[in-house]
Amino acid sequence: MSDELLTIKLYYDYKSPFAYLAMAPAYALMESHRVRLRYLPHELDVRGAFGGELEERPERSWRKVRYLYLDARRFANERGLIIRGPQKIFDSRLSLMSGIFADRHGLFRPYSDRVFERFFKRELNIEDESALAKVMTEVDLDADAFHRYLSHDGPRELKDAFAEGERDGAFGVPTFIVDGEPFWGNDRLEWVAKKLDAMGLRRTQ
Question: Contact, 133 vs 143, CB < 8 A?
Fold first, then answer.
């Protein structure tokens, strides 16, 4: 049996409650199957999906948003997580660059776990560079190097990731690409596992 690991692409956005809900089960796939995760930022288009600015949304769009957060809290309550709806539409591009930076240095998971948790507790402004830098210092990332990254490689690497998402046909988060096949949503991970099983990738010990 080959020990080679299959790479699964995971498209995420820190402002997506469903991406937050997908992270721990996605990490668990690396324990149950011979796979690795490749983390790729993909900005959730809140305005396009839910009727423009908050004050412009028709009631029908608000009903959809309220229902989606109801579902998100149902999932979260089962796992003891807190998800509070953001009080504005956040621009997450700065935080997505911070995720790329953390991944570059092998600390995506501890960094992202903190960002997701605090954002959905309304304890972290993901548009605030200094607030993100403080989280970085907690996981032993170099905040000064992060500031330099934002001025140099960050915008290009974020643009490249967005372009890759377009090529992969990602239209929302979380999206998993498994051997070229897309799976969208935190509740699709069972199907991901079944596909991996069919590929003979479940770990036996």
Answer: yes
